[in-house]
Amino acid sequence: MKFMKLGTRSDSFYTEQATRSLVSDIPPDLVIKINDTTYLLHKSPLLSKCGLLLRLGSDISDSESVPLELHDMPGGAEAFELCAKFCYGVSINISAHNFVPSLCAAKLLQMNETIERGNFVGKLESFFRSCILEGWKDSVSTLQATEKLPEWSENLGIIRKCIDSIIEKVLTPLSQVKWSYTYTRPGYNRKEHHFVPKDWWTEDISILNIDLFRCIIMTIRSTHVLPPQLIGEALHVYACKWLPCIKKAKSSGSSASQTEESIRVSLNIERE
């Protein structure tokens, strides 16, 4: 999995009685409250990169310590702290696991190029295009991460772009599949097989929630590129992972056709 490293300063953030601050010789002059966490920070690095904080902080004099309440921060305090560390130049790692909340928080804070060149949003979007969407597991993991922030992810186009990337790779000819994928079927040893199995993609997308999974399957199905049997195998893999009743029915002796039909009904997908 790819990651992007930003900043060079060591992490000096610390917690004291539910208050987050960082080691500094300069007294804090900016108080930010996110749910149950209070941050004691500095106007200088944050207001120069965050358009929202610049606007909200302009009404606060240097002698005041009125907290700015950002309780609607997508991703909560953890996502905000990544943005704050970027402002301070503290070293952070961005990957498919924390990209979604980072971008959503940076968008809310208005960390755009219009505020400062080389700002956080621009770097995140570049990483998304050049690394995450180019990778198989990165695209799937990022799409899974959108489940916690569905509205933000939908509005920012993250979901649609990840789905398009995943479908493009699923429809890639087997001879051109060069990326890493998960395949743990009994009896399969990758070292002994020099070919890519036709259903190489099914196990990785089975980690998605049913709405995202169904969207991918329906779109793949509509292209008529893959045979119906392969779509059925993807449904079977998903059902074995998430639908205990289907797994139990299979183990009790139900036929393969009965099991597949139960899966299709559960996912509301008609036969070809």
Write structural notes for this entry.
Keywords: Ubl conjugation pathway. By secondary structure, this protein is an alpha/beta fold. The protein is 48% helix and 10% strand. The chain is built from 13 helices and seven strands. The chain has helices at residues 43-47, 51-57, 76-88, 99-108, 120-132, 136-145, 150-155, 158-170, 202-205, 210-223, 228-242, 244-251, 256-267, and strands spanning 3-6, 13-16, 19-22, 30-34, 37-41, 68-69, 92-95. Helix 3 (76-88) packs across helix 4 (99-108) and helix 11 (228-242) crosses helix 13. The protein is elongated, with a radius of gyration of 23 Å. The mean pLDDT is 89.
Low-confidence stretches: none
- Helix and strand composition category: alpha/beta
Strand content: 5-15%
What is the mean pLDDT?
89
Helix content: 40-55%
Provide a count of the helices: 13
| Rough outline | elongated
Largest sheet: 5 strands, mixed
Write the element-wise H/E pattern from the N-terminal end onward: EEEEEHHEHEHHHHHHHHHH
Order of strands, widest sheet: 2-3-5-4-6
Which features would summarize this protein structure in a list?
272 residues, five-stranded mixed sheet, 10% strand, elongated
SSE layout and pairings?
Elements: E1 3-6, E2 13-16, E3 19-22, E4 30-34, E5 37-41, H1 43-47, H2 51-57, E6 68-69, H3 76-88, E7 92-95, H4 99-108, H5 120-132, H6 136-145, H7 150-155, H8 158-170, H9 202-205, H10 210-223, H11 228-242, H12 244-251, H13 256-267
Parallel strand pairs: 3-5, 4-6
Antiparallel strand pairs: 1-7, 2-3, 4-5
